[in-house]
Predict the 3D structure of the following.
Amino acid sequence: MKLTSKGRYAVMALVDLARFNNINPVSLRDISLRQGISLDYLEQIFSKLKRNEIVKSIRGTQGGYILNKNPSDIKLTNIFNAVDEKVKTVQCKKESKKGCNGKATKCITHNLWDELEIHINTFFENKSLKDLLNNNKETRV
């Protein structure tokens, strides 16, 4: 199980945005420079975040992005879902009788990995952007 850069970068960018959200809209260029994430990649990520109503864009010379909700209301699960990131530890579908390895039954350790997936997803459901903000403080460049 591994989170892709898309999921990790989406969280990093939103924490950065949340730090400065109450000052002015934040440009993707500023986030790109501070976090070392490609501007093109951020544009793709923020397109999905906007479509899923996690952020909204403000036009104009002082434009950029702002959060659409309070940081305490944006759970990491919401972010991962918005950018099509799935946290899975097993390849099979839970409702299927067939196992991940294509055999008729599930593997001997299937329940272990399934339980781990539940713990990981519960952790992400219980963590919000506000939790991450409280752990990090930095000033605007």
The chain has a mean pLDDT of 86.
